[in-house]
Amino acid sequence: MLKDVIINQRKERDILLSRKYLRRKTKYDADLLLKSRQIKLITGPRRAGKSTEALLMLQGKNFAYLNFDNDQLIHLWDEDGVMILLQEVYPGYEFLLLDEIQNLDNWHAWVSRLYRLGVNMIITGSNARMLSSEIGTMLTGRYLPIELLPFSLHEVFEWQQDIPGMENASKEVLCNDYLHYGGFPETLEARPLTENYLSTLFDAIVWKDVSKRHKVRNTSDLNNLALYLISNICNPLSANLLTEELSMSSVATTRKYMTYLQEPYLFYYLPRYNNKLRLMQKAPQKIYVVDNGFIAAKAFSVSENLGRLLENQVFVELVRRGYDTEKSLFYYRSRNDKEVDFVTRKGPHIEQLIQVCYNLDNERTLRREVSALTECAGELHCDNLLILTMGEEKTIEKDGYQIKVIPIDKF
Question: Which of 169, 250, 308, 404 is deepest in the core (most CB within 10 A)?
Answer without folding.
Answer: 308
